[in-house]
Design a protein that fits this description.
Glyco_trans_28_C, Rossmann fold, six-stranded parallel β-sheet, 15 helices, 2 domains, alpha/beta, Diacylglyc_glucosyltr_N, elongated, transferase, 14% strand
Length: 370
């Protein structure tokens, strides 16, 4: 039985969910699969620095994060030096883990881990094929290392951005960012038929929540038609409380409102919705594409989420709203012109047809066999 190690990191939920989705599919076909949170396995202080530091920066100092994102995308000697230090810190723990575990294939779902593993392999620390799952739609330079054997990416657009950076197109496979099995099932029969509303909007902000959620919800309450609003606040307990307080203060007579914290049935909630308002994280974007749920994007973190938003808009799968208050008129417009929602959904369906978890599994098999 072939053994696969999957390395992820907890900077947001997307990398971990992609790892778990891969584990699901690999276990189904008989592989022995183990998932490791790379930084937690190595050093508690390092994990706190990277994962907690990332969360604090993107939420509280997004401009600084944007500056760092752009700087690392054009890495100079200083940025490369940081990753050399990171590699040295991880080396004493991650290499023995690989050597003792003897995996036949290593998969990574995080750019930092991809960089570290590529560097270690380049230095001869191990000789196991490495597959990198790119969890956003425009490549970042951190992903690019000579000793990575293959990349699975979300789209032909992603592949093209990699080729432009000098990566051999023969090792890039646009099979789609892995999503949980439940998102591949058609649950539209579960859609609640609420005859007295013109449609349903799903409002989400990802696992970290967003300071802009309250403004977005307030804008939806001003939509002139009667609509159903499903709000998912993720792990942000404070945001959930603020949303509930807003409901108690505002007039919601012509709205049907559901408020949730963290949920495990996002797939079902998407099936019940006509459109989703959300940050365009890589995994959320992919889940929406697979479910053919058009996106309205009023907020995003700079860097990869901004690039994901551009990809969606260019593909006719999403609409960006520059000011959150404009959500009111945009939602009114879309429900008055439902053919636009229909066309966006069709564009997503066309894009979803290109993805294939079975081909990703076949790629894993070929990497193990080589």
């Amino acid at each position: 039985m072939a053994k696969v190690f999957i390395f992820t990191a907890s900077t947001g939920a997307g990398h971990n969910l992609a790892a778990q989705s891969l584990k699901e599919s690999l276990d189904e076909v008989g592989y022995q699969t183990e998932v490791y949170d790379a930084f937690k396995e190595i050093n508690v202080a390092l994990d706190r620095l990277i994962t907690k530091g990332y969360q604090q920066m993107v939420v509280n100092i997004p401009k600084l994060y944007e500056q760092m994102y752009n700087q690392f995308n054009n890495m100079n000697r200083f940025q490369k030096g940081i990753f050399q230090v990171l590699t040295k810190i991880m080396n004493p723990d991650i290499v023995p883990l690989i050597k003792s575990g003897k995996p036949d294939l290593i998969i990574t779902t995080h750019p930092f881990v991809t960089n570290v593993l590529g560097t270690l392999k380049e230095h001869g620390a191990f000789n196991v094929p490495v597959l990198s799952i790119v969890t956003d739609y425009k490549i970042h330079t951190i992903y690019l290392k000579k000793m990575i054997d293959a990349y699975v990416v979300g789209s032909d657009y992603t592949k093209q951005t990699m080729v432009e950076k000098g990566v051999d197109e023969k090792i890039i496979f646009p099979y789609g960012i892995p999503v949980r099995q439940t998102f591949l099932e058609n649950n539209h029969l579960n859609k609640k038929e609420t005859t007295d509303v013109v449609g349903t909007i799903l409002l989400m902000a990802g696992s970290l929540g967003s300071k802009q959620m309250e403004k977005a919800f307030s804008a939806l309450l001003k939509v002139k038609e009667k609509i159903r609003i499903i709000v998912v606040c993720g792990n942000n307990v404070k945001m959930e409380k603020e949303i509930r307080n807003l409901i108690s203060r505002e007039t919601c007579q012509n709205k049907i409102v559901e408020v949730h914290g963290f949920v495990n049935n996002v797939s079902e909630l998407m099936d019940q919705s006509d459109a989703i308002i959300s940050k365009p994280g890589g995994l959320t974007t992919t889940e929406a594409i697979v479910k053919n749920i058009p996106m309205i994007i009023p907020f995003y973190y700079p860097g990869q989420e901004e690039e994901n938003a551009d990809y969606l808009v260019d593909g006719g799968m999403a609409i960006k709203v520059d000011k959150i208050k404009d959500l009111t008129s945009m939602v009114d417009f879309l429900f008055e012109n439902k053919y636009i929602i229909k066309r966006m959904s069709e564009n997503m369906s066309e894009e979803a047809q290109k993805r294939s978890m079975s081909k990703t599994i076949e790629l894993c098999q070929s990497l193990i066999a080589q």
